[in-house]
Known about the structure:
Layout: E1 2-5, E2 10-16, E3 30-36, H1 38-48, E4 53-59, H2 61-73, E5 77-82, E6 88-94, E7 100-103, H3 112-125, E8 131-135, H4 146-156, E9 161-164, H5 167-174, E10 180-181, H6 185-192, H7 199-211, E11 217-220, E12 226-230, E13 233-239, H8 250-260, H9 265-279, E14 298-301
Parallel strand pairs: 1-4, 1-8, 2-6, 4-5, 8-9, 9-10
Antiparallel strand pairs: 2-3, 6-7, 11-12, 12-13, 13-14
Helix pairs in contact: 1-8, 4-5, 6-7, 8-9
Amino acid sequence: MILTLTPNPSLDRTYELPGLERGAVLRAAGDRVDPGGKGVNVSRAVAAAGGRTVAVVPLGGPEGALLARLLEEHGIEVAGVPVAESTRVNVALVEPDGTLTKVNAAGPQIERAAAEAMLEAVRARSADAEWIACCGSLPRGPGPEWYAEVVDRTHRGGGRIALDTSGAALTAALGRRPDVVKPNTVELSEAVGRPLATVGDAVKAAEDLRGRGARAVLASLGADGQLLLDETGTYFGTAAQVVARSDVGAGDASLAGFLAAGGRGPAALAAAVANGTAAVQLPGSAMPGPADLDPALVTTTTDIPVNRALTHPTR
């Protein structure tokens, strides 16, 4: 079982548009609403693959009630924590070439009692969890050290934790030795305070995060592939080019595949790349199932192309 903690979940409404024209009245070619938030997406991917997952989420207002119902319809066990303000609604606008424009709401204020109740829900439901995945930005209320407390409590309980966050929350948690951190290129650059122009730059940045406490780093380089640095070595994974429909939740699908495959070594990296590649070919934030995966598209290697320029270098 994989337990997820999403402190700022959402309802994600996606509109597919023939084109995005500012100031115009646009007619959507398709639309859908999905339960959202990075940890929620990890749970959805685990459930789509036939695995058991529990999602710890704050729930507020009719939006929170709808989120819980949608999660249950996906076969996800919901450990909901009531909050006073409504769960947020995010909007994604997708154009035919895959260009994505997102509008993310701030989300509810989480009071101290609700933040503690989420920590207690994680403790109460994690006894048989192979992994605890804590994902996404923090909502208004908890300080950046809150994820560090989650890491501490997980380790005191004998569990393994994967952390997918950024900024001060990531920095504060590194010294508590999370088992896996999963930054993208921008988050990795921000964490080390320098630009990344090549795959080699990304490797050095991931090494820095390990030096600051992360036991493993699974770094998404977007279309350029993924890196894994752990105690078994350094690996680089890529996939053959596919037609992208939406990249919403692709990184979360990757993390789910990685954890479900054991969360260690090149086989887990290959699963991460396969799941992320499958996810970008699906509409909205739909998560891939076994029939969507094509492992033949994936290559992993220890021969890292350190001089390869990143498609989207950071500044």
